[in-house]
Amino acid sequence: MKKALLLVTLFTLLAGVSGCGYTTRSAIRSNFATVHVAPFVNVVDVTQEAYAANKYRIYRPTIETDLSNAVVNKFLSDGNLKPAREGSADLVLKGEVTEFRKDPLRYDDNDEVTEYRVNIVVNLTLMDRKENRMVWSENNFTGDTTYFTAGSQAKSEAQAISDSITDLARRIVERTVEQW
C-alpha cells in the first residue's frame, strides 16, 4: 500500500514538474529587455478608385495613433519587454496601417446588414537596434472583431473599431514576445 501511494505521489510530482510545455516566460531572447514602438504610419490610400468604389472600405482618422498607443499599453501590461525611447531600446517595432475595412457578414430579411467584421491590416518590422538587423517582418498582419448592429449583442461601430485595435495590439505583442 505504501509503495503504491509512493508511486502515485512520485507520478503526480513528475507530471506537475514536466507540465504541458506552457510557461510564463517570454520566448524572446534574454538579451532583449526593452522595445521602442515607433509611431505607426497610416499609408491607406483613400484616393484609389477601387477604395472609393467599395462602400465597405472605410477610413478612420488617427487610427495609427490609437494603434501606437494600444501597442505600447499592451507591452506595458504584458511585462516581457519594457517600452523605452528609441536610443536606449534593444528592439524597435515599426508599423504602417495599410488597410481598414468593414465587411458585411449577415443580412436580415430586408437585405439590411445586421453583422459586420472590422479589419485593420498592418505591415510590421521588428529590428534589433544594437546589431542593426531585422528580427522579423510581417505583411498583412490583421486584427479584427465582429459586431451586430441591433439586438442584445449590438455595439457601436466606434466600439468595434476600438476592439479591433485592442485585438491587433494583442496579436502584435504576442508575435513579438513569443517569436512564432
Q: Can you name the CATH architecture?
A: 3-Layer(aba) Sandwich
Alpha-carbon distance between the two ends = 47 Å
The Cα radius of gyration reads 22 Å
Shape: globular
Q: What's the helical proportion of residues?
A: 25-40%
How much strand content do the residues show? 25-35%
Average predicted local confidence, pLDDT = 84
Q: Which structural class best describes the helix and strand composition? A: alpha/beta
CATH superfamily: ABC-type transport auxiliary lipoprotein component
CATH topology: Rossmann fold
Counting DSSP H or I runs of 4 or more residues, the number of helices is 4
**In total, how many domains does the architecture comprise?**
1
The sequence of SSEs as H and E is HEEHHEEEEH
CATH class: Alpha Beta
Instruction: Find the count of extended strands (DSSP E, 2+ residues).
Output: 6
What does this structure look like?
By secondary structure, the chain is an alpha/beta fold. The chain has a single domain, classed as ABC-type transport auxiliary lipoprotein component (Rossmann fold, 3-Layer(aba) Sandwich), CATH 3.40.50. 33% of the residues lie in helices and 32% in strands. The chain is built from four helices and six strands. It has helices at 2-18, 49-53, 63-78, 157-178; strands at residues 34-37, 41-42, 82-83, 91-107, 113-128, 133-148. Strands 1, 2, 3, 4, 5 and 6 form a six-stranded mixed beta sheet that branches. A hairpin with a 4-residue loop joins strand 5 and strand 6. Helix 3 (63-78) crosses helix 4 (157-178).
